[in-house]
Amino acid sequence: MSTVTPEEYQRIVRALKREPTETELGIFSVMWSEHCSYKSSRIHLRKLPTKGARVLQGPGENAGAVDIGGGLAAVFKIESHNHPSFIEPYQGAATGVGGIIRDIFTMGARPIALLNALRFGPLTPRQGSGQAGPDGARTRRIMEGVVSGIAGYGNSIGIPTVGGEIAFEEPYTSNPLVNVLCLGIVRADALVKGNASGAGNPVYYVGAKTGRDGIHGATMASAEFDEKALEKRPAVQVGDPFMEKLLLEACLELMATDALIGVQDMGAAGLTCSTCEMGSRGGAGIEIDVQYVPQREHGMTPYEIMLSESQERMLLVVKKGREAEVEAIFEKWDLHASHIGHVTTDGVMRVKDHGKVVAEIPNTALVDEAPVYDRPTTRPAYLDEVRALDAAALRPVPPQEALLALLASPTIASKRWVYRQYDTMVRTNTIAAAGLSAGVVRVKETNRGLAISTDGNGRYCYLNPRRGAMLAVAEAARNVACAGALPIGATNCLNFGNPERPEIMWQLVEAIEGIAEACRALDVPITGGNVSLYNETDGRAIYPTPIIGVVGVLEDASRVLTRTFQGAGDAVILLGEDRGELGGSEYLKVVHGLVRGDAPALDLAREAALLKVVIGAAAEGLLRSAHDCSDGGIAVTLAECCFDTGGTGATVELHGADGAVELFSESASRIVVSVKASNEAALLARAAAAGVPARRIGTTGGSRLEISAHGQKTIDVAVAAAEQVWSTALEQYFKRAVA
Amino acid sequence: MKFGVVVFPGSNCDHDAYHAAHDILGQDAEYLWHKDPSLKGVDVVILPGGFAHGDYLRTGAIARFSPIMPAIRDFARAGGPVLGICNGFQVLLEAGLLPGAMLRNRDLKFHCEHVYVRVEQTDTPFTQSAARGQRLRIPVAHGEGNYYAEPEVVRELEASRRVIFRYCDARGEVTEAGNPNGSVNNIAGICSEARNIVGLMPHPERACEASLGSADGLVMFESVLAALTREGAVSGAHPERAPASRGA
User: Fold this and answer.
1) For residues A134 and B184, which has the higher predicted lDDT (pLDDT)?
2) Which of residues 514-553 of A touch B (CB under 8 A)?
3) If DSSP states are collapsed to H, E and C, what string results for A658-685?
4) Are the C-beta atoms of residues A267 and A309 closer than 8 Å to each other?
5) Global confidence as pTM
6) The domain B2-231 belongs to what CATH superfamily?
7) A268 near A102, Cβ under 8 Å?
8) How far apart are CA B205 and CA A689, in angstroms?
9) What is the pLDDT of residues A178-218, one digit of tens each?
10) Contact residues, chain A, for B8 at CB < 8 Å
11) What digits encode the pLDDT tens for the residues B22-33?
12) Does the distance separating the beta carbons of A432 and B213 come in below 8 Å?
């Protein structure tokens, strides 16, 4: 199985100045796969801002790192495991968690938080199909598998899952997205790199034995799916969180000594990728003999050993003369470190089998000669059709009925059914306030906290990839700011279809440029991430879905803010303003069955000013709660502010032209905050000084949410009744499901 | 006073128990590696939560053979206070230091959430500072916490007042709705015949600071501190010389 094109084959022959051996061809084919080489996205990824005062490590290492103050660094990255999770949901998701955790601790950091961004098809049969199809049942099965896979791995290894988000859209039915973000903490001066250097230094293999699982996993992740996708199950790996826990503890113990030169996990493309990349980064070569690689099965060929993607394996380079010390640390953790080779000076990746050379490739040939494509782009024809939206022609729907329908929509409803299965608290750092807009963990031995949010609205990106991507950055930063934290860095996971199709490539380029622009304006450099292409099944692509993870610092973790109203008599203030935008909204989709219009407008300067006001006011202690207006518009936002409060309501007066539009419009750059009445003037003054529109729209209190426009009540619902709908909607789907 | 926190290779709440004892209570604390047969003179032993050896076979089934277990057995036999939390409780069951076994949760899913437990008995070193009937808000985080024992064992546990914690609802009533995992008689924690070994599924070490959601678990650490202080134990004292509290 090789996906090398005839042109790429010629390139290999030129680089080697001879025909490749079978093993070499396998090595080239995985290293030059889309998954490992980023050949379609590389020239565009260069447009992303990756530098900043706080950036300690940008893209290129196992993960990025930012300075969080006090001599500490946060190491974080997001990665996809989409294809494996469709084929085998439990193991696909579990090994996705395992893979990203390894990327974090190979940097020397102790992982302290996980988040996941998940996208599934609708839980109900395909809308408008007129018949009960199998899709809903299959989606429930995929989702149950993914959630228990994430739980099975994260809970066992003891890293809390502190946040993330889930959305349900038709195009993810046969191509779910599983993006996992991991964050760790390390002393800034103790960051570890994945370098090999020092001729003669021993190269160790440690962890699970190598089997035939996952061979060409990276290649699989670089191809579309068809009806035979499930036959690819042997290319999915099986996770062993206990093994990874041993590796994690042993590696951190080793890193506390100075015996280690560099380390890299064997993820995609396994031993091949780690051997080549470590040598390349360190300007050295690595020579290994596969006979010393621990093997799970008999009779494995060098080709299979080099390409296996068995999980929980690490490659280490240590200082010569320190072997006994290194081996003792691994023995303590019941791991066996196998000495499989050494560092050379010739810049060549040399693989032997019982002393006989089976592959000999200059690192430069694999890395620098890798093909880079500037693929053609075409603006998709569908855009003109879907952008047209005649809001006036919409069937009138009573606003209260619409609000309750939105609260029951799985994308908006409480995800308690999901997160209750995750250990959210292990390591005792998770700030446990109900209704946090971001995952918040404290940093022990400091007063600080870190807020992390992942966001990305596929519908917006489908309607307008550039703006949708910008909105994803803005929303993630806004959610972090709503917790009171200052956004300082970002990671991205770009989930798209087949880049060989010019329409898909256009979406990808637009999205990357949108991310770049938004990250610059909001001062959140991208420190790393992952690109997942070929997310298509039977020629149907997913919505273009860039997921953005933003990390923020909260100087005083005890000042963390939640979305929840804190009692009666507080002023409810809207920062930002509505522009009557229903395009791409959850309202249009849920209530009218439409995915149409344009994504909401975004003025990045206004967004930046808004974030500054909220972060400043939070630090000063002016705010009692803060909640971003996004899915479902201000009506859903206000309802959510009332939830998890024990039934605190609010009375709100809106002033827009059209009640329904203003209730459900998803205009960006808006935050609903509550303040003590005595702080209202101070907040409004702060907003005015920053040029941020701000207006008192109501008062908290009572047990009902009452919203009126022009003196006429449009919503009047008991908080308890609305909360019942919102908190039980998701689990209803699983109660009905019979496996 | 010195707390010892046992570290099996797959323990993952060891740092949390250490943090509670050392940083919140301000006591000496030490990690006890499971391959080391010595308890290093600690006054209290905590078996923390986690997945001791991966627990693919049965929770705690391998941990009972760890080299440290005979030392813990001796320590307990001499009256030393031993607390098993979650996986630590499962290990104590497998080791036969407490009776019963764990089944998978009633709905076959992992549950992580704050629940309520009612303090049923206060004559143990880990509950003596609590009030009988006191309702504690403490998180659970387990997939196999559905406590089961043969009916006669349960009868004996009840008759000898060895059920220490019961799951309850927000009002302190022992109800089916308040039971997160299906445990028989809503049992959340039990003690040994001599009452110095306590095991429970909820995580008191995760409930020692209000910012993390609850400080209700602190009373268990304060209890053992008070129990040993009153008995005249000093830091580093061996239980052979200074037997711990047998109860109020």
Assistant:
1) B184
2) none
3) CHHHHHHCCCCCCEEEEECHHHHHHHHH
4) yes
5) 0.94
6) Class I glutamine amidotransferase (GATase) domain (3.40.50.880)
7) no
8) 46
9) 999 999 999 999 999 888 889 999 999 999 999 987 776 66
10) none
11) 999 999 999 999
12) yes
**Pick from A720, A677, A723: nearest CA to A702:** A720
- Measured between CB atoms, which of A152, A421, A428 is closest to B206? A428
Query: Domain residues of chain B, as ranges?
Result: 2-231
**Which residues from A are below 8 Å from B10, CB to CB?**
156, 242, 245-246
What is the CB neighbour count within 10 angstroms for residue A231?
10
Virtual torsion, Cα B63, B68, B70, B72, nearest 10 deg: -100
CB A185 within 8 A of CB A70: no
Nearest-CA residue of chain B relative to A427?
A: B16
Q: Does the beta carbon of A557 lie under 8 angstroms from any beta carbon of chain B?
A: yes
> How far apart are the C-alpha atoms of A268 and A80, rounded to whole Å?
11
SS (H, E, C) A324-336: HHHHHHHHHCCCC
Query: Mind telling me the catalytic residues of B?
Result: 86, 203, 205
Q: Which helix (H) or strand (E) is B163 found in, with range? A: strand B163-168
Ramachandran class of A646: left when φ > 0, alpha when ψ lies in -120 to 50, beta otherwise: left
The Cα–Cα gap between A11 and A3 comes to 14
Instruction: Write down the H helix ranges in A221-322.
Output: 241-255, 270-282, 302-307
**Angle B113-B114-B120 from CA coordinates, rounded to 5°:** 130
Q: In this predicted structure, which of A91-100, A296-305, B56-65 has the lowest mean pLDDT? A: B56-65
How far apart (Å, rounded) are the C-alpha atoms in residues A463 and A597? 7
* pLDDT tens digits, A495-526: 999 999 999 999 999 999 999 999 999 999 99
Considering only the beta carbons, identify the residue of A242, A424, A433 that sits closest to B51: A242
| The 3-state secondary structure of A604-628, one letter per residue | HHHHHHHHHHHHHHHHCCCEEEEEE
**Residues 6 or more apart in contact with residue A8 via CB below 8 angstroms:** A28, A32, A371
Distance from CA of B86 to the nearest CA of A (A): 12
* Cα separations in angstroms, B136 against A364, A379, A454, A670, B202: 62, 60, 34, 39, 10
The pLDDT confidence band at residue A267, using thresholds 50, 70 and 90, is confident
CB of B65 within 8 Å of any CB in chain A?
A: no
Task: Please give the ipTM for the structure prediction.
Answer: 0.91
**Cα–Cα dist A240/B56, whole Å:** 10
CA B74 to chain centre: 18
pLDDT at A1 over 60: no
Reported confidence tier of residue B239, pLDDT bands at 50, 70, 90: very low
Q: Which residue in A81, A83, A216, A627 is the catalytic one?
A: A81
A241, A421, A431 ranked by CB distance to B109: nearest: A421
Q: How far is A118 from chain B (nearest CA, A)?
A: 19
